[in-house]
Design a protein that fits this description.
Length: about 325
């Protein structure tokens, strides 16, 4: 069953721009430009894209903060803006750059206030809080005022407050931003458990590709408001991760000058040459066989593309370019 369903979802903003010395013109800019996405119950979806792609705008429409300009949208069977109050009981929201905790109160008080806001029965609240305290290791700072918490401690508090009313969907916007390595790992471990338990649907936006690699089985990538990829991380690797790097050290400085399909030289300094090969056209073995004609090889390393390489290629790909191209006028 789909907990989120968007079809042809669009959001336009009107911006004013200088037009001449004293005049300004108004222009309509589509921040989200016809997004189709369906998220199943219990799924953890990574929602990815470069700066300004439209991720936050989509999240704001999903959570009832912004009204779509056009398109169909249902979240938990509700229309987010008109049914915002009912929706709020079914969703949890965490924005990495902001907090929903009460700044001057001890952390524990924010949890108590959340219980009253969501009218959660005391026993249910206590049981859930016990579980979250344990999973997120909160006990060392429950009585500390929020403003004195470290960023990592605050994020654990924010996750708790977002989950205390047992929402069906959790929206996470950059939950690991600014966290140190240890805190990032703690948040990811918690989200992995939440995903594996399977009773909370999670939509995650992040620029941290390690988050994606650890957590997301499915990725939707948008660029300029349009979906340019919807599939697993493995699909993404298969589509954009075919280039491997082959670093070769020769016994002596060499001149490498040959044409080989699917091979290009990335850099060449003395006895070290770095090649980039397209795995759909040739293999590292074929390259090495050809290279041994240039001189004896001392050492060789083959590097698989990292997720950064894959995503960089996707952002530069023709489909992402097409998302950027203006609509033909007519
Ligand atoms: N209130 C607004 N008024 C006008 N333009 C806006 C408004 N909010 C967003 N935009 C524009 O819409 C586009 C999408 O912005 P959005 O914040 O959704 O991107 P994003 O993918 O979340 O980016 P980032 O990764 O940098 O947070 C951008 O071009 C942005 O400038």
């Amino acid at each position: 069953m789909n907990v989120i369903e968007a079809r042809g979802l669009r959001k336009e903003f009107t911006v004013t721009k200088p037009a001449g010395r004293l005049r300004r013109s108004r222009e309509t800019v589509p921040a989200v430009d016809g997004v189709d996405v369906a998220v199943e119950e219990g799924e953890l979806l990574g929602y990815l894209g470069p700066n300004g792609a439209g991720k936050s705008t989509t999240m704001k429409m999903f959570t009832g903060v912004l009204t779509p300009t056009a398109g169909y949208l249902q979240v938990c069977g509700l229309e987010p803006v008109p049914q915002r109050t009912r929706l709020a009981r079914r969703i949890g929201v965490v924005f990495g750059q902001r907090t929903q905790l009460w700044w001057d109160l001890p952390l524990r008080e924010s949890f108590e206030l959340a219980r009253h806001i969501w009218r959660v029965p005391a026993a249910e609240h206590a049981a859930r809080l016990r579980l979250l305290r344990d999973r997120l290791d909160l006990d060392g700072f429950l009585d500390t005022p929020v403003r004195q918490l470290s960023l990592g401690q605050r994020m654990r508090g924010d996750l708790t407050v977002a989950l205390l009313h047992a929402p069906r969907v959790l929206f996470l916007d950059e939950p690991t931003i600014g966290l140190d390595v240890v805190s990032k790992q703690a948040v990811r471990a918690f989200l992995t458990e939440l995903r594996d338990a399977g009773d909370t649907t999670v939509v995650l936006t992040t620029h941290d590709l390690a988050d994606i690699e650890r957590l997301c089985r499915r990725l939707v990538v948008i660029d300029h408001g349009r979906v340019v990829h919807d599939g697993t991380l493995a699909d993404l690797h298969a589509r954009y991760g075919s280039r491997r790097r082959v670093e070769v050290d020769f016994e002596v400085p060499v001149a490498v000058s040959f044409d080989m399909a699917g091979v290009s030289v990335e850099s060449h300094a003395g006895d070290r040459v770095v090649f980039s090969i397209d795995g759909t056209v040739t293999t590292a073995g074929a390259l090495v066989a050809r290279l041994s004609e240039s001189g004896p090889i001392r050492d060789l390393r083959v590097t698989e593309p990292t997720i950064e390489d894959v995503v960089a290629q996707l952002y530069a790909s023709p489909s992402a370019e097409a998302a950027r191209a203006p609509e033909p006028r007519g």
